[in-house]
Here is the input.
Amino acid sequence: MTHDFDRELQARLAVIEDPGYVDPARADLPGRDLALLVVLGGLLIVLMIVWSYPA
Here is the structure.
């Protein structure tokens, strides 16, 4: 069982360490999506502040 784990681990590390490997999770985020995240994050913060202080 340990040999299977080590073999699989080495295979995955070889893929990640390959100089030609491009990680899709590290791709640049489009500007439109980044702006949307900033706006929604700010809106969420404002709503949480309003909700936490009852009138």
Notes: The chain is about 70% helix and 0% strand. Helices lie at 2-17, 31-52. Residues 31-52 form the longest helix (22 residues). The two ends are 61 Å apart (CA to CA).
